[in-house]
Amino acid sequence: MVVIDELPFRFVGGLGFRSFCAVLQPRFVIPSRMTIARDVVHLYNSEMEKLKKELTMDGQRVCLTTDCWTSNQQIPYLCLTVHYIDSDWCLKKRILNFVQISNHKGETIAKLIEDCLHKWGIEKVFTITVDNATANDVAVSILKRRVNGWEGSVLNGEYMHVRCCAHILNLIVSDGLKELHHSISSIRAVVRYIRLSTARVEKLSVCVAKEKIDFKGKLVLDVPTRWNSTYKMLEVALKCQKAFERYEEEDSKYSQYFLEEEGGKKKFGPPSKIDWANASRFVEFLRSFYQAILKFSATKSITSNCFYLELGEILNLLKKLVLTNDSLLLDMVSNMKKKFDKYWGNLDNTNLLLYVAAVLDPRYKLGYITYCLGCFYDAQIVASFILKVKTLLRSLYAFYSKGKTEISPTIKSFTLSNTLQDSLLSEFMKQKEQITFDESLNEVDRYLADESVNPLTPSFDTLFWWKQNSIKYHVLSLIARDVLAVPISTVASESAFSTGGRILDPYRSSLNPKTVNMLVCTQNWLKSTNEGLVE
Fold this sequence. Notes:
This protein is α/β, with parallel strands linked by helices. Helices cover 56% and strands 8% of the residues. Helix 4 links the parallel strand 4 (125-130) and strand 5 (161-163).
C-alpha cells in the first residue's frame, strides 16, 4: 500500500488503519513505520534483481529515454527509463533510476546515466531518446563513445541519438499559436468568467441539462504556453456552445462583465457566432496534431513505426492549407510550416532508423514511404533517400547476421493421427509445408518482395505478426525487435515526474532522494508486472 498507493510511512500508525486491522484480524501485529521503511528497501532490492536478470539475459538490447525535473524541495531529479521488446514479443518499459542530479550540464547527465548502466550491468544500448536541449546533445555524444567502448552499440552508435518527436511537434504547433486569434481569446474569457464562481459553474450545468447536451465533464481553462490545453479548452467549450448562449440570456451580469475594462483595455468576449465558428475551424485543424501527439507519446504500444505515417499526414495538411490561402488559418499555417521545415524539412535531419521502422511494418514496407515522399519531394531526392534507407537496412542485416545462419522459411512439423495419414487433409497440410522461395534472395530481399499486409486490416498487431514470422525472417526479426522498441518521445520518463510529485507532496517533502528513487522505481516495477495486485 505504501508503494503502490503512495501512502506515507506513518500511515501504519494512524488510528483509522489500526482500527481497520483490529476488525479485519485482531491478532495481526501492525509493523512500525521503521519496519515498513526497511521492507521497502528489501522489496526494491528483490524486484531490482529480477529486472536486472531480465535485462542482461540472452543479449537483450535496450533503448533509453531520459528527462529532468525539479521537485517542490527544489531538488533536481533525472529519470532514466528503459524500453525493450522481450523474447515473447511484448513491449516493456521500466524506470531504472529516479535520482538526484547536481546540474543539467551534458557531462553531468552522461556521467549519471553511465553510472546507472554500470549498476544495472547494461552494455547493449540501441538508442537514447531525449528532447532538443543542447545539454542532451552533449550527453548522448559522450554516452555513444562509452557504449562504443563497451562494444555494445549497433553500427558504432551512428543512429543512437533520437530526438523527441512529441517535443518537436509541440514546438511547431506552439509557433503557429504564438499570436492567438481574438476568437480564442473570447472563448478563454468566457470560460474564465464561469470558472470564477461555483454558482456560475452550477448554473451552466443547469443550462447544459436544459439544452439536452450530453456532457458530464468540466470546463477546461488553458495554459497559454501549452497548445494542447488550448485545443482541449476549445473542444470542451464547443460542446457547450448552446449552453453558453442560454447562459447569456439568463445571467444579467454576463454581458456587463465583458464591458468592463481590465488593465485599461476592454476585455475579450463574449464570443459571437463568428467566434464559435472560428473556434470550430481551429479545433478541426488542431485535431490532427493532437492525435499525432497522442500516438507519438504512447507508452503501451510501439511508436517508431508510426512516425513517418503521422509526419506525412501533417505535411500533407500544411501544404494543402498553404495553397488554399485560408485567411483564418494562413498566418498560423505559415508559421508552422516554417518551423516544420526547420526540423523535418530536410530528410537528412531525421534519424534514419525511424524510416526503417516504417519499412519493418509489414503493412507499409518501402511502398508507402516511397509514395508519400513522392508527393512532397523531387523524384531524384526520393530515389536517393530510399537508397539510404535500404542501405541502412542491409547494414543492420549484415550486423545482426554475424554468427547467425540464414534459416529457411519452413513451418514447424506436426504429427498426424493414423486416421488422417492418407486423407485429403493430410496431403493438403504436407503441401502447405513446402514453401518455395528464391534461395538467391536474403531475408531483406524476400521481405521486401513478399506481399504486404492490407493496411486497413482491423486491429493489426505488428509485434504479433513478427512473432509469427520470426522463423521465416530470423535475422530480420532480431532487427525488428530492436527498431520497433525505439520510443519517439520522452513521455515515459516525464510521466514518472507525476509520481514523484505525488510522493513528494508538501507533507512528505522531507523524504531523501534515495528513498524517493526506491518508491518511484518499485511502484513502476510492481504495476508493470501486476504481481500480487488485485484490480
